[in-house]
Structure formats: structure tokens, C-alpha cells
Amino acid sequence: MLKIENLQVHYGGIHAIRGVSLEVPMGKIVTLIGANGAGKSSTLRSIAGLIKSKTGSITWKGENIMKALPEQILESGIALCPEGRRIFPQLTVLENLKLGGYARKDKSSLNDAIERAFASFPRLKERSWQLGGTLSGGEQQMLALARALMSDPELVMMDEPSLGLAPILVEEVFEIIRKINKEGKTVLLVEQNAFGALNVADYAYVLEVGEISLQGTGAELLSDNRVVSAYLGG
Fold it and tell me: What is the pLDDT of residue 64?
């Protein structure tokens, strides 16, 4: 479904991604784990068209999207839920969701999409009138996830969805990821919470200093001594 080959990204003189190659099969949850600065977010932003690379290829359903604009990539079926939530704090929950659906080709289905979002995230329905900036951290993350789903993407990319949340909310976020996947969405997940990410992932990649250092099923990496030592507290 999504295939990256030899992706390289530079920020000025910084070589952020150094020849990354990975695949995200249809219907699966694939995760990228690694330390801060490893290149995880840069990989997602490159797929979304927010960062342009001159080297490598990003193929989506058989088509190279390296030169596509971000809005074209969104319309093709790839949505990004960014790190830090990035909701619109001065807009209501409902207005945030409507903006998330702007790329839908069938505008008449927007209300149905909103109702599905509210069915998946009942707390958002209770607060549909509330300004996004007044929601709790967990509620803002739910809104960010729901907004990403409003374009009805085939692939949902999530950048650190559990970051900064209380432990009980972290568990809830990972349950939501499982539910989104069971409902037919392919998921590419970037997470510093390696234990939670590997528990939900069908397949996983470890990114270190812009390069893939390890890969395998989530279960395989959970039992790999190198992963345990570096990312799971020994």
C-alpha cells in the first residue's frame, strides 16, 4: 500500500533521514519507535508532503507521491494527526471537525462523517459547542484523531498521540488506535511509548539517527534484548 525506498531528508546541514526504507501493508498497524531526534516525525511529514526530499521514493498505491502537494496527498487517502494535536483552539469541537472534512469529495456526506466521529468519540459530542482550547489534554487528542478521520482516509498517520497524557488516558488512546484499525483503517504510528506501540503494532521499525536499525513484528521487538534495554527500561 505505502512503500518508502531510500528516503533522505536534509534540514540545512542536518541529515535528518538517512536512506529509510519501509512498507505499510493495507489493513495493518505499523509503528516507528526511537529516541527524540531519530527522524520519526520527519518521516511522517515527508509522506504527508510537508517536507520535500530530492532522494528516494514514496509510493502510495503504486504511484510515486514525492512531488505531490500536501492537499493532493490528503485527497489521495493519507491523513496526518500531527504531534502536539494542533487543533484550532478558538474554534468549537464541531468547527474543528468540519475543517477536517474539507477535502471530502462528497460534501453531502459531511454530516454523516460528523455523526460517525461523535459515535466513536462520545465525549466530543457532549462538548460539540465547546472551544477546542478549553478541552482537557485527552479530549484535545481525541479531537485531533477524529479530525484526521473526517477526510475518510485509507491510511491514518499518528505522530505521538499519547504524548503528555496521564497513564489512564494513554491506555485509552491505544484502545482507540486498535478500534480505528478494526474499522478498516491502515495506521502508521510514531510513538515514544515503545511498549504501548509495540503491543498494538503488527509490524515495527526502530529508527536511530535517521536510519532503520531493527525491524520485525511487534511481538518480536518486544522480546528483543536490544529494544528492551534501549526503549523498555531494561
Answer: 94
